[in-house]
Design a protein that fits this description.
Lyase, Ornithine Decarboxylase, Chain A, domain 1; 8-stranded parallel beta barrel; TIM Barrel; about 25% strand; alpha/beta; globular; 17 strands; about 30% helix; about 375 residues; 2 domains; 9-stranded mixed beta sheet
Length: about 375
């Protein structure tokens, strides 16, 4: 295997390879920064999209993020080891060994975690006793995602009161994320769902405030819905992640003008044709192990005449009605879902003007604990 290096041309990169178009990536950073600054809310960019310290640094330095989100303790460890100092685990951490690791990270960074269980709060507090810094804790409410989270209202209040009374913990607010809304294609339908979410979240905020528990953070939202939460007057942090790369599925989501969302595709799987033996069919070297298909098959960039039809472990079958493809010809695939696609690779190769400009390790790859 030829290891990619800075200065190499794109033609020298062995395939399949995960590629970031730096011009598009930087445009996405700049666009989000401008939108967020105009909205008056904070961006806490979600690193589950990229799991890369290098990308997280760019999101903060150029992209205006106040910090980042992760989903796992191991991801937090990787980011903090890389110099990121404001991290939210937008998820629950319940295993005793993971709680101990989490508590130790408070010596190195400003850290938040989400809870939806009284016993979890007690365990976190026990781990934090005697430590120099407190752990910020948000109550997660179920606003329709049907995963983690207590119901809005009184159940959230009871947990918030327990957090406030616990040693080593600081009640920091609410986590109210509706992931299922992100990919609702139609803008009006998506807006109606977010309006319902905002109402439930606002009512919970009022219940907490009336009990003397103001929320310094009301967090949620993603790439598909964040303008709606940002304009709600309820949310003050949004947790977008996919905007930096986009993918084929997100490009099917429409805005209020029935246009695609205003971010560019920046992430690609570069692949090569390895067989043209079948009439009207070609086979490339990027299959399941190169691109996730949980949200649909990849789209071939700038080739509407071609259709990536099916994938197996190491092969992608492409419909090529005109038999236009030749052995070793390169194609750029837009993956169906960027987050799990990145997780299949050890590195991202950042390119500009036909050359490799940077190599970004997927720093937290494999850190699923």
């Amino acid at each position: 295997m030829t290891v990619p290096t800075v200065g190499m041309t794109i033609d020298q990169i062995e395939t399949p390879a995960l590629i970031v178009d730096l011009d598009a990536f930087e445009d996405n950073l700049d666009s989000m920064r401008q939108i967020i600054q105009a909205s008056g809310v904070r961006l806490r960019a979600h690193a589950k999209t990229h799991k890369s310290v290098d990308v997280a640094r760019e999101q903060i330095a150029r992209g205006g993020a106040c910090g980042i989100c992760v989903q796992k303790t191991g991801e937090a460890e990787a980011m903090i080891a890389g110099g990121i100092t404001d991290v939210m685990i937008s998820n629950q951490v319940t295993a005793p060994s993971k709680i101990a690791r989490l508590a130790s990270l408070t010596d190195k960074a400003r850290l938040f975690v989400c809870v939806d269980d009284a016993d979890n709060i007690a365990a976190l507090s026990a781990a934090m006793r005697g430590r120099a810094h407190d752990l910020g804790v948000l109550v997660e409410i179920n606003v329709g995602n049907g995963r983690c989270g207590v119901e809005p209202g009184g159940a959230a209040l009871r947990l918030a009161q327990q957090i406030k009374a616990a040693d080593g913990l600081v009640f920091s607010g609410l986590q109210a994320y509706q992931g299922n809304a992100q990919h609702i294609r139609d803008h009006e339908m998506r807006a109606a769902e977010v309006a319902r979410v905002v109402q439930a979240t606002a009512e919970t905020v009022r219940v907490l405030e009336n009990a003397g528990l103001p929320c310094s953070i009301v967090a949620g939202a993603g790439t598909g819905t964040f303008p709606l939460e940002a304009d709600s007057g309820v949310y003050n942090e949004v947790q977008c992640g996919s905007y930096i790369f986009m993918d084929a599925d997100y490009k099917r989501v429409r805005d209020a003008n029935d246009d695609p969302l205003a971010f560019r595709n920046a992430l690609y799987v570069l692949t090569s044709i390895m067989s043209v033996a079948g009439q009207g069919r070609a086979v490339c070297d990027a299959g399941h192990k190169a691109a996730s298909i949980d949200s649909g098959l990849p789209i071939i960039q700038d080739r509407p005449d071609l259709n990536y039809r099916e994938a197996s472990d190491e092969h992608g079958v492409i419909d090529d009605p005109e038999d236009s493809l030749t052995l070793n010809q390169r194609l750029w695939l837009i993956p169906g879902h960027c987050d799990p696609t990145v997780n299949l690779h050890d590195t991202m190769i950042a390119v500009r003007a036909g050359q490799v400009e940077a190599i970004w390790p997927v720093s937290a790859r494999g850190m699923g604990t």
